[in-house]
Amino acid sequence: MNDRAAPGDAPVLGRPAEAAPAAPAGPAPGGGSASGAGAVAERARRRRGGPAKGGSPLGRARWTPWLYLAPALVVLGGLLAYPIYQLGLISFFQYTQSQVSGGEPTTFEGFGNYAELLGDDQFWQVLLATVLFAAACVVSTLAVGCALAVLLTRVRALPRLALMLAALGAWATPAVTGSTVWLLLFDPDFGPVNRVLGLGDHSWTYGRYSAFFLVLLEVVWCSFPFVMVTVYAGIRAVPGEVLEAAALDGASQWRIWRSVLAPMLRPILTVVTIQSVIWDFKVFTQIYVMTNGGGIAGQNLVLNVYAYQQAFASSKYSLGSAIGVVMLLILLAVTFVYLRLLRRQGEEL
Q1: CA–CA distance, 173 with 170 (Å, rounded to integer)
Q2: What tens digit of pLDDT does each residue of 13-47 get?
Q3: How many angstroms from the chain centroid is the CA of residue 81?
Q4: From CA 34, how far away is CA 46, in angstroms rounded?
Q5: What DSSP state is assigned to residue 108?
Q6: What b-and-e string marks burial along 293-322, b requiring 16 or more CB atoms within 10 Å of the CB?
């Protein structure tokens, strides 16, 4: 009796059937080359909601962040775009108290307000003072904030907590309150600073440069906590092994900051620098309160206070709007140039 089953017979119970040799896989009918496993993977991909085969996952990933940002962009667009539009629109018209009250019709001036502004010598003096004052505030704020951030990593928990609370208290103080306190500290008659320094009845707000210096101290005092907290958080994210290796190589604290920490914290420093430039360039409250509206004969005017005087003190709303547009363009240009310089240095932002 032959033990092998015929080709058409069923396998014999208790004895495994011999496996038939696998036929070589050939091309699918019609010239296709997709296998069964590929079809199963394609169906699984579609079931998961992924892109169909042959789609562009990179294109979809490129738009995903914008979908998450869309709600915030819509809100910011409504809160910022319309006021900026109105600001630019008013700057092209003759818009004074007469037009506001309806006594005279509003007339289109084109670039007349900008021509008047650029032809005013006081505008260029105020612009120069604003740029120099803002630059001094930004450099001082970054220096103090970064130094204290490094100090926070060197002290124990209790001093660190005390410094953080003191800094956050300065940060949370309203600008009007902080300006008033600093005026009292430097008051010619009752201020403790003059008594400690032996300056008698010296008035810090009388001279132009001493008044700017006093305002700079207040601006740095209320601005450095943002830089300190942000940079401190970035330093804590740096691996400790990197700092230990630099210390073992004999690097000083300044060299560790300049060669190790600063390059690693470049994105964070970029953010705090741009924020500081914007805040210090458009400072208003400290100058207005501490110099009584711009100092003697306007010697301490900055662009924001100058725009306020033109728009509300002189009722030249269109000229004040033109100053606001010029400030906006300057800040956009400074930010754009700064980011371009960083990109040329190969920094990822």
Answers
A1: 5
A2: 344 444 444 444 444 444 444 455 555 555 555 55
A3: 18
A4: 16
A5: E
A6: ebbeebbbbbbbbbbbbbbeeeebbbbbbb
What is the rounded CA–CA span in Å between residue 121 and residue 87?
A: 23
Residue 3 to residue 12: CA distance in whole angstroms: 9
pLDDT digits (tens, 9 = 90+) for 268-313: 999 999 999 999 999 999 999 999 999 998 899 999 999 999 999 8
DSSP lists the bridge partners of residue 223 as none
Q: Which runs of consecutive H residues, i.e. helices, occur in 249-316?
A: 253-256, 262-264, 266-281, 285-290, 303-308
Contact predicate 342/349, CB 8 Å: yes
Check residue 207 and report its DSSP letter.
S
The type of residue at 322 is: A
Task: Report helix angle 157-172 to 121-152, nearest 10.
Answer: 160
Q: How far apart are CA 90 and CA 311, in angstroms?
A: 11
Rounded CA-CA distance 140/325 in Å is 27
Nearest 5°: phi and psi at 11? -70, 145
| Paired tokens of 215 | 């305002």
Which residues are CB-neighbours of 47 under 8 A, at least 6 positions away? none
Query: What angle in degrees, to the nearest 10, is found between the helix axes of 317-344 and 266-281?
Result: 160
Distance CA 179, CA 167 (A): 16
